[in-house]
Structures are given as C-alpha cells and as structure tokens.
Design a protein that fits this description.
Layout: E1 4-5, H1 7-16, E2 24-29, E3 36-37, H2 40-52, E4 57-61, E5 71-72, H3 83-88, E6 95-96, E7 104-108, H4 111-115, H5 129-135, E8 139-143, H6 152-160, E9 176-180, E10 186-190, H7 205-210, E11 215-219, E12 222-228, H8 229-242, H9 255-266
The structure holds zinc ion (ZN).
C-alpha cells in the first residue's frame, strides 16, 4: 500500500523540484497521480502556496468548455480540468476570471491583475490570463500530467497565427456566450477564438528537453515537469513556423484536426 502523503512531504518534493524558485505558477495537475494525499486537493493547494511564498501567485485552469446556462456564473460553474482546480476555485481568496468557457482561477499577489477582464481578451490566446502569467516570467508545473494538458501551447498557436484559428473544436458548440461583468452589465463573448485539440501537444517535449528547458522531479509516484511559460510559447511558435500542422493529432475521427489539416495544407508554415 502506498504511504499517505502529508503536506510537509509535498512541500519537500516541490522544493526539491525547484518550485520554491518560482513565484508565479500555472499548474496543470492530477490529484490521483500522487497516490494518497492526506486532506486531498486542499492539502496540495496549501503545499504549493506555502512553497511559492507570500509574494507568490498560483493559477490553475478552470475550463468548463461548454456553458450550460444563460450567463456564466463563476461561483457555480464546475471546472472540468481536475479536482485540484475545482477545489481551488471555491476558496474564498481565489479569483476566477470571467470567461464563459476558458476561465482560470488564481490565488496570490497578482491574481487580480492576471485574471482581469478576461471576457475582453482571447480565451487562451494573446493577453489571456495564461499569456499574462507567462509574460510576467511565470513557470508551468505539470503535476502528474503531460504537455497535452498545457494550454500555454494555445498561446503559442495564437502568436504563431496558425492557419486553423477559428476552426471550432466541435461544430455543435455555441459560437457566443454571456458573462456578467463586475459592473453588472451582461456582455456577449465571441467564442470564435477558442482553442482546438491538444492531443498532439506532446511533440513539444523533445525540443524543450533538447534546449534544457525542462526540470523533472517526482512527487512520490507522480512525474512532474517544471518549465518556463515563455519557453513554451517561444518553442511552440518555432515548431509551428517550421510546420504549421505540427501540433495536430493523427486521429482520423478528430473533427478539429481534420479540418485544421486542410487549412495547413494551404499554409505549410504558420504566420506566412
Ligand atoms: Zn485532434
């Protein structure tokens, strides 16, 4: 039987992995990957916040993908990106960005700054919260998950101006949704910039490794990777300028990648 991990164990693992040398952290995570944690998701969040310190900011994706209500309600819409993220967004000190499908939640010094007016920006593109934390020098922690969960690569797709921007992930998804802004006004958000399939995103790992940009460590059974957000964005852009279909998956039944491939055939190098 695996040992029951305590918060102090997690703090030790995170420090050994170098997370204490970051202040701004975008975390993608799998609670299950670590085995048994005393206190579950709450303990993981506490441990990461302790390691980041008082000046730190922790951000997680709280994507819901499709809004199943008329107006996005940040207090009730469930996060579909893992138990840790859904637990974090419910904390009183957490700030959830106002985006009807690709919101994030953040805790810490820069939480307001990074999440502000998300409905005006691209969902996961330029000036999105994920872009902002990366450009501020933030790191990405993949905790028991791989690069196919890393939405920062969608930021790279936006900067590279991939020819498949605007292809819907699913043609049946709504193209607009509404949020209520802090002033009480209900605004309609255009969802045509939503990100597509990330199944093929693992291709980024090799170039990042070749450049020595990945720091590997473990939290008990969970394999973790720490990488700078800007390194991911810049490497994604480089890979896409070489081949604009580099991130598309090869599953023939993937609607998004099938449509996207037709567009990349016309524009083999992104941004041209
Ligand atoms: Zn695909």
């Amino acid at each position: 039987m695996k040992r029951l991990l305590q918060k102090s164990d997690l703090v030790d693992f995170l420090r050994e992995g170098g997370v204490d040398q970051t202040r701004l952290l975008m975390m993608h995570s799998s609670l299950h990957s670590m085995g048994r944690v005393n206190g579950g998701a709450e303990t993981v969040i506490d441990a990461v916040l302790e390691v980041l310190g008082e000046d730190g900011t922790l951000m997680v994706p709280t994507f819901n993908y499709v809004l199943e209500m008329e107006v996005f309600d940040p207090a009730t819409v469930h996060s579909q990106t893992g138990l840790i993220t859904n637990t974090l967004r419910k904390r009183p000190e957490a700030v959830r960005s106002l985006h009807p499908t690709y919101s994030v939640a953040a805790i810490g010094r820069h939480a307001d700054e990074f999440t502000r007016e998300h409905w005006k920006a691209e969902s996961t593109g330029i000036d999105s919260p994920i872009d902002r934390i990366a450009r501020a020098g933030g790191f990405i922690l993949l905790l028991g998950v791989k690069h196919d969960t890393d939405s920062t690569m969608h930021v790279g797709e936006a900067y590279a101006q991939v020819p498949y921007r605007g292809v819907p992930y699913d043609p049946n998804f709504p193209r607009t949704a509404q949020v209520r802004t802090p002033s009480g006004e209900v605004v309609t958000v255009d969802l045509n910039d939503e990100p597509g399939c990330s199944t093929g995103f693992g291709v980024i790992e090799m170039p990042l490794r070749q450049k020595g940009m990945i720091r590997d460590f473990k939290i008990e059974a969970a394999k973790c990777q720490l990488v700078k957000g800007l390194d991911v964005i810049e490497t994604t852009v480089e890979v896409l300028r070489e081949r604009s279909d580099a991130l598309l998956c090869s599953n023939p039944s993937c609607y998004f990648c099938t449509c996207a491939r037709k567009k990349t055939a016309l524009h083999p190098r992104a941004g041209e």
